Every structure is written in C-alpha cells, then in structure tokens.
Amino acid sequence: MQIKTGGLYKNILISIDNSEHSRCAEAIGVLLGKSSKAKITGLHVYSGLFHQFRFKILEEHLPDKYQKDEVLAYQRKIHSVLIERGLELISLEYMKNLKDACHRAHLPFEERLVDGKNSDVIIEQAKSYDLVIMGAVGIGAVPGVTRLGSNTRRVLHSVEKDVLIVKKKCDLKTIVVGIDGGDSSVQTVDSAARLARALGSSLHIFSSYDPALHRVVFKSLADVLSEEAGKVFKFKEQEQLHNQVIDKSLENLYQKHLENARGIAEQYNVSVSTELLKGKPYCALSEKAKSLDADLVIVGRYGMHRGKNESIGSNAERLVELCSTNVLVKSANTGKNLQSVATNPQVETKPQKKLVWTPEAKKRLEKIPGFARPMAVLAIERYAREHEIITITPDVMRQARG
Fold it and tell me: Which ranges of 269-313 would DSSP assign to H, the alpha helix?
C-alpha cells in the first residue's frame, strides 16, 4: 500500500467565546492546522438581536422618566448602536489571539463574526468545514459542573462532520483510539495513524467487549422465568453456552479487530500498541485514557449497532461526557472529509481452508437461538481448525462444546 502523506483536514472551524476551554481549542486547532497546512476559520457568535429583544421586553419596567415616547425612542437607538458596535468590538478582541497564532504558524486565517443563536450558527457554518473544534463548556460554565455545555451538546448531536471536543490544552503526543470492528473502524484507525505520524505521537488502540452483560441478563431471567418456561427456553443450556463458548468467541473476534488495526497503523511507521479491554466500551476506554494521561481519544460517531433514529452512538456520546481529555468524534462519512485516504488497508492473513457443515450439523445449529448462533459458529469453527477438521458434524459440535 502506498502511504498517503497529505494532511488530514483542509478547512478547520474553531468556535471561540474567550472561555478557558475555547483558548485550549484555539491552541489545538493551530497545532492540527500546522500538521496538515489547513485553513483556519475562527467563528464567534454574538447575541445583538437577542439583547435588543430583551430590552424591548423590559421597556415597560423602566423608570417613569424613560416612558415618554421620544425618550424611549432615543434610548432604543442608543442601546441598539452600543450593543451592535460593542459586541462587534468584543468579538474582534476575542479573535485576536487566534489570528496572531495563525500568522505565526503561517496558516491562512479567516474570522467570522455572526449575530444569532450560538449552536444554530455553528451547526449551519459547520457544513462547509472538515473539522469543527469547540470547548466542552463555554463562558457561561457553572463551577463544579463537569457536564458538556448546552451549545456543545447540540453541536455534537447535529453536526455530521468530525467534531473535536476540547477539555484541556496539550501537544497531542499520546493518542488513544477505540474500535469495535464496524465499517468505520478501518477509517478511524487510518486517520488516527496519519495524525500520529504527522505529530510524532504514540498511538494506543483499544477494543472492548462486555462479558458481564449476558450474566446480568441470565440472572434477571432466572428471577422471572417459571420452571416450565425455563425448560422451553433451555435456560441452563443457554447459560452454559454463553459462559463457556460466547465469551471466548467474543474475545477472539475483538482480538482479530485489534490485529487488523495494528496492521493498518504500522504501515505509517508510528509507535503503536493494542489491548483488549473488558467492560462497557465507553467506561473502559475512558479509564484507559486516564491511566495513560492521553491527550486525545478518537472514536467513530457510530458503532456496529447504529439505530435508525440515532444522531450519535451511545458509546461515543457517553465517552465525550465522561472522558477527562479531548475527544475527536469521527464522522460517519469519514472518507469524504480527508484530503487523502488510504485505501482500506487490511492485514494479510494466512489463507484458511473452507469448512463444510453437514446437513445434520446445520440442523443442530438451528436449535441455538439466533442472537447466540454467530458466536457459536465462531467457537465451533475455531475448534475445528485447531484440530485440523474440515467437515463439521454433530459429533464435532459435541466435541467443541465439551
């Protein structure tokens, strides 16, 4: 595979409000801009029309001396001019630091000052950019409250581009990636590896599965199923199947995802490590990022089980909320917003002989519930290959289970 050396992004939009997180976003935006020679646009949204609207509502509550028509008209005019010009001057001051930083870094820069509702403007403006960067909370943050700001949350849910939520200033030297083996995982790892190469960063790739989930489910079922229903469901057999077969199959499956991811990353000559985690993906990845003191966590916007009405996957959303460091949520259309994307590299694997299932084995397989069948197939076929068996019969299935 020919390694691509082009930058990750062409156009970066940074939302600015002069908050602490906003200043961190500016610094990281310039760093990313330098790594790909991107154009930086600073966007500040002010609320001139909102202030005028509020002033009009408050007019009837002004002291009596302001209630004369000519006095009130004069006050409206003065307030309008002061607010409009004042907010413009403030916005220009907010923009100065980013403008100077881009100038020092020899990056093209554009400033945009827009009157309107903050999140609405950012969401609309984002359509023209590859990457949107903003602080986790804004200038109105409440001390001690660690949840995302309302504008940040709206942008995260509504912008179908790469979105970087900034929580701290850093040099992005330690990058963590979370994958689940879905269609977007290859592009997520490819993008992360290219970024790590451009910044000289170390790359740590993790995948996580939750072996405790089915134990919780079976415990719940044990409390509600009658003895007769348990026999129909073959409760004990299903529990044993999950405990003995599915866990191991899941572990092997996710380990293969990690092997493939390592193969992709290593082609960029970056320092890369992989590790399989156990637990809820967003919890496990957040804890691992914290233990590594990671500068950036990268995940896909959606996982393997995307719902038709979802604006963002649950693990990605919870990770952004929970994680103590910066999180880059990759767009579902990752391939469209890169300057140059490697062509889905795959790890070369040793050719495996095709296994044949006898009709009797297939019939026996149908007795396994649909949700567990794919994992049972993986486990049985793994057993067959380990023992150099080509034809899978009911007897082979029994042996695998044993």
Answer: 281-291
CA separation for the pair 274, 326 (Å, rounded):
20
Task: Give the DSSP letter of residue 44.
Answer: E
Bridge partners, 202 (sequence order) = 174
Written as six digits, the tokens of 152 are: 């940040």
Tokens 């990022």 sit on residue: 289
**pLDDT tens per residue across span 215-257:** 666 566 555 555 655 555 565 666 666 666 667 777 888 888 8
Phi, psi of 56 (to 5 degrees): -65, -40
Cα–Cα–Cα angle for 275, 307, 298, rounded to 5 degrees: 35
Q: From CA 192, how far away is CA 316, in angstroms rounded?
A: 16
What does the pLDDT look like over 29-59, one tens digit per residue? 999 999 989 999 999 988 756 666 666 666 6
DSSP tag of 245: I
> Would you give the DSSP letter of residue 244?
I
For each of the domains in the chain, give its residue range(s) and CATH number, in order of start.
9-169 (3.40.50.620), 171-349 (3.40.50.620), 352-402 (1.10.8.550)
Residue 307, judged by CB atoms within 10 A of its CB (0-12, 13-18, 19+), counts as exposed
Length of the chain: 402
Q: Are 194 and 268 in contact (CB under 8 A)?
A: yes
- Residue in the block written with tokens 């002989």: 353
Beta-bridged to residue 14, according to DSSP, are: 42, 133
